[in-house]
Amino acid sequence: MNTQQGSELFSAIVTAPFGAMGIRTEDERVRELVYLPSHYEEKAPQNAAAEQAARQVLRYFADADFRFDLPLADAGSEFQRRVWNAICAIPRGSVRTYGQVAKLLDSHPRAVGQACGANWFPLVIPCHRVTASGGLGGFASSDDEHGFTLTVKRWLLRHEGALPIDVPWQQQSIFP
């Protein structure tokens, strides 16, 4: 039995190329997906929704073109959901800046960034595809250039084929 501190919060934990992915479920729906560091051990799915999410997360890690089809819990404000819908329209292998998404929604880049940070369903809602105009930007409410979450963002962008040659911030060596 996995007695690791914090693992009880999750209905499943799957190993990821960058560490692990925690899956929380509630009422047969996915409530939250969480990027976790590698010291989290796998945890077998505790229910059908967790099993479905774990299977789909692993398929995405194997194939960046995989499309999620999960029962998601209701989350976010009306504005956040508008931002998340716009993010879902960004094709795999592409990025948009916070400013580009804000212009599309007649909003402000900071508000778009805050909505990205409030995303309960990363991977399903691919907020990693949104960057700053002059660099990688933040990710999962962090902007520590060498921190865990920006390492995850770099991995996801590489996995999806958003190579340095395709992004405006290629000269900044964000892909070490």
Identify the strand order in the major beta sheet: 1-2-3
Mean pLDDT: 87
**Shape label:** globular
Q: What is the architecture of the largest domain at the second tier of CATH?
A: Orthogonal Bundle
Radius of gyration: 16 Å
Poorly predicted runs: 165-176
| Helix proportion range | 25-40%
Order of helices and strands: EEEHHEHHEH
**What is the beta-strand fraction?**
5-15%
Q: From the 3D structure, determine the CATH topology of the largest domain.
A: Arc Repressor Mutant, subunit A
Main sheet properties: 3 strands, antiparallel
Secondary-structure class:
alpha+beta
Q: Under the CATH scheme, which class of the largest domain?
A: Mainly Alpha
Count up the helices. Answer: 5
* CATH fourth-tier homologous superfamily of the largest domain: Winged helix-like DNA-binding domain superfamily/Winged helix DNA-binding domain
Q: Using DSSP, what is the number of strands?
A: 5
C-alpha end-to-end distance: 38 Å
Number of domains: 2
Keywords: DNA damage, Methyltransferase, Transferase
GO molecular function, one term: methylated-DNA-[protein]-cysteine S-methyltransferase activity
Organism: Massilia aerilata
Domain Methylated-DNA-[protein]-cysteine S-methyltransferase DNA binding: 78-162
